[in-house]
């Protein structure tokens, strides 16, 4: 069979998929080590060969046209077949079997994925592990385009959905846990040894450290404060690390996801403060392509994440503790503010 002259090149199809993933010809060009003009010329040449308009270009970026989306659908199948052919021809199948490409929302990638990897049945030396991060839309595109095997996403799907869900775009999700919010203070704060629950009006009146507006954590915090309105005094930071540092060395208060402060809680640098109402939580899901399925290591990691391994105990001062090595209880437990860290995000 002689291929027709207008047959697209694999590299050009891969470039188109990157434009779809990044929403920008410039970013796609950077990922392929091309200049933006060179990438634009290659896309335009493919459009002329096929007689199709593939991209809608604007100052805000580029998105695929209806024809572009249809071509991208075929391109994903072609690229997958090309990868399989390369594995067969180069003997790389065993090497690829030890490659794990993961992505996660920023907090998950920073605080949870490293722990899940360490608790899995393989070490970093036995596999090539690549971890990427991004917002929900970016993670979804990475899965669709085959740039990652698995992504951990927070707040994407409805909470409480145990098991798997089938979503559009050939994506499957599995519920991992709910990541709860908690009021957090430094070890020098009077509330660090407080024995009675905190009220929302008290929280709103305290000097706070908050994430920037537009972030998911800020939305959850605003939801918690509710009718109390905007806090009287606060400092905004664009990262959880900056917030933790600011709170640990001052008498300010913050609201953070429990998953992001577990090591500081265990070391005693930060403390949880009980609140007199149920704290909101956001679900964490594992997501992958149903068509491609999960490689062995990725499947193993999902199971580790879902089971959460051995719990790490963290307790509110002044409360009774319990054995962190066992979940079995021989008698009813009295109401307590004691909080198991993994229990708090499950």
Short description:
The chain is 38% helix and 22% strand. The chain is of the alpha/beta class and 346 residues long.
Counting DSSP H or I runs of 4 or more residues, the number of helices is: 14
Structural class from helices and strands?
alpha/beta
Shape: elongated
Helix-strand pattern: HHHEEHHEHHEHEEEHEHEHEHEEHEEH
List how many beta strands DSSP finds.
14
Strand content: 15-25%
Uncertain residue ranges: 156-167, 309-346
> How many domains in all?
3
- CATH-derived architecture of the largest domain: 3-Layer(aba) Sandwich
CATH class of the largest domain: Alpha Beta
Span between termini: 57 Å
**Largest sheet report:** 10 strands, mixed
What would you report as the Rg, rounded to the nearest angstrom?
Answer: 24 Å
CATH topology of the largest domain: D-Maltodextrin-Binding Protein, domain 2
Portion in helices: 25-40%
Question: What is the arithmetic mean of pLDDT?
Answer: 78
Domain HTH lysR-type: 8-65
InterPro entries: LysR_HTH_N, LysR_subst-bd, WH-like_DNA-bd_sf, WH_DNA-bd_sf
Region (Disordered): 313-346
Keywords: DNA-binding, Transcription, Transcription regulation
């Amino acid at each position: 069979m002689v291929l027709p002259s207008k047959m697209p090149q694999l590299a050009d199809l891969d470039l188109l998929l990157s434009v779809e993933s990044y929403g920008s010809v410039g970013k796609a060009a950077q990922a392929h080590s091309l200049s933006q003009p060179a990438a634009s010329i290659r896309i335009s040449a493919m459009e002329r060969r096929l007689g199709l308009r593939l991209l809608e270009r604007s100052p805000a970026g580029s998105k695929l046209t209806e024809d572009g989306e249809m071509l991208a659908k075929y391109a994903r199948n072609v690229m997958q077949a090309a990868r399989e052919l390369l594995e067969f021809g180069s003997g790389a199948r065993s090497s690829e079997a030890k490659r794990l490409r993961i992505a996660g929302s920023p907090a998950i990638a920073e605080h949870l994925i490293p722990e899940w990897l360490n608790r899995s049945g393989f070490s970093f030396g036995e596999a090539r592990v690549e971890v990427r991060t991004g917002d929900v839309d970016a993670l979804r595109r990475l899965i669709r385009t085959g740039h990652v095997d698995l992504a951990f996403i927070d707040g994407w799907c409805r909470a409480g959905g145990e098991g798997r869900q089938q979503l559009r775009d050939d994506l499957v999700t599995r519920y991992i846990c709910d990541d709860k919010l908690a009021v957090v203070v430094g070890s020098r704060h009077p509330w660090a040894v407080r024995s009675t629950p905190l009220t929302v009006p008290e929280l709103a009146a305290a000097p706070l450290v908050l994430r920037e507006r537009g972030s998911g954590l800020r939305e959850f915090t605003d939801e918690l404060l509710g009718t109390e309105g905007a806090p009287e005094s606060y400092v905004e930071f664009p990262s959880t690390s900056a917030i933790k540092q600011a709170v640990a060395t001052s008498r300010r208060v913050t609201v953070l996801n429990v998953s992001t402060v577990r090591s500081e809680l265990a070391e005693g640098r930060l403390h949880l403060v009980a609140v007199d109402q149920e704290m909101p939580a956001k679900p964490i899901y594992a997501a992958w392509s149903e068509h491609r399925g999960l490689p062995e290591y990725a499947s193993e990691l999902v199971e580790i994440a879902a089971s959460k391994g051995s719990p790490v105990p963290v307790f509110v001062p002044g409360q009774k503790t319990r054995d962190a090595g066992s979940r079995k209880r021989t008698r009813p437990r009295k109401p307590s503010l004691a909080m198991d860290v993994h229990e708090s995000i499950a």
